[in-house]
Amino acid sequence: MNLTLFVWRQSGPNEKGKLEEYEAKNVSPDMSFLEMLDEVNEALIKEGRDTIAFDHDCREGICGTCCQTINGQPHGPHDGTTVCQLHMRQFSDGDVIYIEPWRAKAFPIIKDLVVDRSALDRIIQAGGFTSASTGGVPDANAVLIPKPEADLAMDAAECIGCGACIASCPNASAMLFTGAKVSQLAHLPQGQVEAAARVCAMTEQALKDGFGNCTNHYECQAACPKGIDVKFIAKLNREYIKAQLKGA
Amino acid sequence: MILDGKCPTGPIQQSWDKHRQDLKLVNPANKRKFKVLVVGTGLAGGAAAATLGELGYNVEAFCYQDSPRRAHSIAAQGGINAAKNYPNDGDSIHRLFYDTIKGGDFRAREADVWRLAQVSNNIIDQCAAQGVPFAREYSGYLANRSFGGAQVSRTFYARGQTGQQLLLGAYSALARQINAGSVKMHTRREMIDLVVVDGVAKGITVRNLVTGEVESHWGDAVVLCTGGYVNVFYLSTNAMGCSVTAAWAAHKKGALMANPCYTQIHPTCIPQSGDHQSKLTLMSESLRNDGRIWVPKKKGDTRHPSEIPENERDYYLERKYPSYGNLAPRDIASRAAKESCDEGRGVGAGGYGVYLDYAAAIERLGESTIASRYGNLFDMYEKITAENAYKEPMRMYPAPHYSMGGLWVDYNCMSNVPGLFVLGEANFSVHGANRLGASALMQGLADGYFVIPYTIAGYLATITPGTVKDDHPEFKKAKEDAQNRTDKLLAINGKKTPTEFMRELGKVMWNNVGMARSEKSLKEALQIIPEMREEFWKNVKVVGSGNDFNQQLENAGRTADFLEFAELMTYDALHRDESCGGHFRTEHQTEDGEAKRNDEDFTYVAAWGSTGANSAPELHKEPLKFENVELAVRSYK
Ligand SMILES: Cc1cc2nc3c(=O)[nH]c(=O)nc-3n(C[C@H](O)[C@H](O)[C@H](O)COP(=O)(O)OP(=O)(O)OC[C@H]3O[C@@H](n4cnc5c(N)ncnc54)[C@H](O)[C@@H]3O)c2cc1C
Ligand code: FES
């Protein structure tokens, strides 16, 4: 099939960007979206033109590196799929596709479709851990965890940190991302001791970096390639109130 | 030269404890005076940087991605081994040790493997304490499953995302140290050179991938944790950015490269769908727990799998290896798949595929049980192939997956260049000629959490911190070399893209240095690779500039390094005139097509030294001694 692409091109963080038009020719339905862009880039090289910069690495939907808004939807039209796992069979001959970077104040653009997501690392650094230094921990089976709790912790832990939740949110809120980490640890005995301090520190850091608040649009859950449930935002709020009551 | 692995002597059971006792310590007040550079923050590097930070060293860590959470360790699916023996099914440190040595076809060092098996138990404890949500039984105890090459259930897992969860555990430990100020993290940096002063590693040169700037960083020790090199095949299960670049830079500065020909081809990957393909996707080995592998008995049978009756199917692994069946080790399972396809019995377009069938398991256990065990893998399969594996069998074909070879290190994980340590997939140490499933995660974390914190002290205690800094002329020279190479790449302005070269190289490596190798195929590759390299430096086209974010330049640099490394890998494969594990020389096979080792002549590690561009590498041997296991013919029948 043949497609028309409008791709956001911006040469640097402080430059002005704009949508530019490209043709993608002879696209096979078995290609992934990124392979389609690879081919466009190969053609650009042959013409001596600068290629479209986009982030990617594992290309199997787990590292969270790829991040593109396709026709207004972070990670594109297929539910529960990252851009790298999106396949061209989702599109038809003659389609016009708009490709843009994640847009959020906390994610400055580096080049074209590449953004700086280090703010997400800073949220984790603020408290997304247990303070278990290497060595000196009990036998893994000394602390039992009921299976339903372990499963809930795992549901939350599936977050790949791509930032689609933020890109899709009208407030650019990081509450699904933060809530997932807070909930994972709150569902495990190992995370209890520092729970109050953790939720306060992580929430504060998110505000500091310019992420907004949640006003219940739930776009985040719809955009999340891993289907992380908004119930973890509710859990985040409960943990936060609990911490406030404790005076943490 | 004969190399000394500096392994402890005496009973192997006490070797690591005794060695730890003998190692020097660095006084707590002095630790912060030592700057340690950790390159790579996957499982090995993330664990190392976090732990060294906790201990009080002044750590700086580097990765090429935008966050340490994205290292390729994240993609590991199936699980991590440990000798806990929780299921009471006969496991022990000794058994894990033995299985790993045997799985590696008797080409690994005993002492290193023993230590790995010993600390495997600490890893599970550590990860559980970090909040890694391992799978649990209803009783609340940890669950285990079985994996290839073992007859016990010793694999711990977190759904189909074990690597992700373990990496996020290490990443969170690292985040805690970054927050505490003991680790400084440099993301989007690619190491392109090792700085060696008077024969000792003293720092690195990196390219800032955002600004293009070449930076110098000094350190009292450099710890390389930069992963494996199977992207030399272009199509592999590794992430697009995985490369040999950092290891190759170290090699060119004097570090020996050991057993580069030992590469693992994983039996269960989704077959290639066309020439546009950029990578191959692995389907976890855990699938072989419940799935049955088969091909039609008849050649060129194009019927739909559901129309092929039971008695016309060949469950070849169950037939050939009755005691391990579908759980035969990877090298064996991969070769058996290739054989079936080469005989014309392969399935799917092009005939390069075998079936992995769940019908029997679904009938026995129900679809929901299968979904809870492998749901995410079935989903992934459907996204890529648009086929529903609950309804029809998956199609699988082997793909390059893991590098057992790597930089040579001694028992302390230090290379022959003092001050340069190498951990995880980047070193050669424990897997011999074939790695068993669920043991790479184990090795990465063992090296990072439990080995390097001890052994690095033994080295640092013998040197004075901060004697060489980045104002030393060697740093300036390395920077100039890097700049010159960038300028040269950009100036060629030829006709072929870096990806085109990489694809071509990958094809040669796969056809000539892949699952089956012969003197003829290897000699042919040794003819082609230098020609390709020459063409690359005359005809590559790299667009963009050297002063900003330029992914084409990154690609070109990695391709240039692979074009050099590929030759060494082929050279090693030609020199190793035997078959062992993943290294299958067609000249050396038993009557029924199994790998035939030559213990008399090849029971050694081949560690190659660089002698400069376009000149033959120099071979150093480290003899392997087996005192605790008997060298035996590896049989899984
Ligand atoms: C799809 C897949 C599934 C797997 N499943 C399993 C499994 O179930 N069980 C198991 O035990 N093993 C599994 N493995 C193997 C295992 O995941 C890897 O061997 C292991 O995670 C490697 O860890 P590492 O820390 O050595 O390297 P990596 O995780 O690859 O990390 C390398 C690090 O080095 C950095 N780096 C690389 N080059 C440079 C450079 N030049 N400059 C700066 N930084 C650099 C990267 O940024 C990264 O941080 C699997 C592998 C794959 C590919
Ligand atoms: S590239 Fe890793 S999730 Fe898309």
Describe, in plain words, how this protein is organized in 3D.
The complex is a heterodimer of chains A (248) and B (637). Chain A has 248 residues and is α+β, with helices and mostly antiparallel strands. Chain A folds into two domains: 3-111, Beta-grasp domain (Ubiquitin-like (UB roll)); 117-246, Fumarate Reductase Iron-sulfur Protein, Chain B, domain 2 (Orthogonal Bundle). Chain A has helices at 33-46, 118-127, 147-157, 164-168, 175-186, 195-208, 219-223, 231-246; strands at 3-9, 18-24, 69-70, 73-74, 96-100, 109-111, 114-115. Chain A has a five-stranded mixed beta sheet. Chain A has a two-stranded antiparallel ribbon with strand order 6-7. Chain B is an alpha+beta fold. Chain B has three domains: 17-25 and 36-264 and 402-460, 3-Layer(bba) Sandwich (FAD/NAD(P)-binding domain), CATH 3.50.50.60; 265-400, Succinate dehydrogenase/fumarate reductase flavoprotein, catalytic domain (Flavocytochrome C3, Chain A, domain 1), CATH 3.90.700.10; 480-623, Fumarate reductase/succinate dehydrogenase flavoprotein-like, C-terminal domain (Methane Monooxygenase Hydroxylase, Chain G, domain 1), CATH 1.20.58.100. Chain B contains 17 helices and 19 strands. Chain B has helices at residues 15-22, 28-31, 43-55, 93-103, 110-130, 162-180, 245-252, 316-320, 330-342, 359-365, 367-385, 440-460, 473-492, 498-512, 519-539, 551-575, 599-602; strands at 35-39, 58-62, 80-81, 155-156, 183-186, 189-197, 200-208, 214-218, 221-224, 257-258, 263-269, 292-296, 313-314, 354-357, 394-403, 406-407, 420-422, 604-609, 618-623. A five-stranded parallel beta sheet of chain B has the order 5-2-1-9-17. In chain B, strands 11-15-14-12-13 form a five-stranded antiparallel beta sheet. In chain B, strand 6 and strand 7 (200-208) form a beta hairpin. The longest helix of chain B has 25 residues, at 551-575. The radius of gyration of chain B is 24 Å and the shape is globular. Chain B starts with 14 loop residues before the first helix and ends in a 14-residue tail after the last strand. FE2/S2 (inorganic) cluster is lined by residues 56-59, 61-66, 82, 84 of chain A.
